Amino acid sequence: MKRALYILFLIIMNSKAFSQSWIDTTLYPFENRFLQLETGNMHYVDEGKGETILFVHGTPTWSFLFRDFIKELSKENRCIAIDHIGFGLSEKPDSVPGTPEWHAQNLSEFIKKMNLQNITLVVHDFGGPIGLAAGIENNDRINKVVLFNAWLWATKQNQEAQKIDKLINSRLGKFMYLNMNFSPKVLLKKGFANKKNLSKKVHQHYIKPFPDKNSRTYLLNLATALVGSSDWYQKQWDQLGLLSNKEWLILWGTKDAFITLDYLKQWQEKLPKARLKEIDSGHFVQEEATVEAIQAIDAFIHK
């Protein structure tokens, strides 16, 4: 009886995902899969066979960000891309912390339940601290790391982060995030060096997952954690030695106005043996320099 109810639940969740009329299946043609975690039902994509590549997105994106990577790299690899709880097609439960450390525990549970091994971990934006923290906890399962623009150290002394934190925690900031869907509508677009690289059709795929005020609390929670989780970031940074002996590839958008070249310098000091490819793009390298980034990852995996 329990198994029958569970199967029915999965059918309903898959039907719900496919019923989202805003999803263009020519852009995102993957089978929707779900894994029940302690905190909610996580949506993910699992395509291809071979070495496992695990894609971890940031905010306000979801697995859609890596759609072209999955299409191409799944020809010779197993490509898994998750949607954090509260993002994309994953469940959006009420009254949860929604902090990076909370998301990292969810991802760690996902890795263990899926029994993933020899993982090439691909992280970006808030997916950096989230994915790397889960990687540190499961370091014996990680083989390689691909890092797009991200950070993993204390932020509370950073003046720009302090300015953002002050705005986000103000009444105006909360209003913009919760009532105006400010993060995907405005901030995401500002992350592009060339705004023409973000078509209206693609942009809608980042706006639509957050249709109401309640769904946008996940965006606000991560935004407030930019400084709010500062001590936790530093703790992960101090433990990065558990991953620093892995092979690393850094793909860095040099025109990122948010996570700048100063961040890259800090990564280079910590990981002097990492391969580096600087890319002429903004924060969302995956959208602006898709082919170049895919080729770099493919060469890194199959060198």
TrEMBL record:
Gene Ontology terms for molecular function: hydrolase activity
Protein name as catalogued: Alpha/beta fold hydrolase
Lineage of origin: Bacteria, Pseudomonadati, Bacteroidota, Flavobacteriia, Flavobacteriales
Domain spans labelled AB hydrolase-1: 52-289
Range of residues in the leader sequence: 1-19
Coiled-coil region: none
Source organism: Acidiluteibacter ferrifornacis
Alphabetical UniProt keywords: Hydrolase, Signal
InterPro entries found in the cross-reference section: AB_hydrolase_1 (IPR000073), AB_hydrolase_fold (IPR029058)
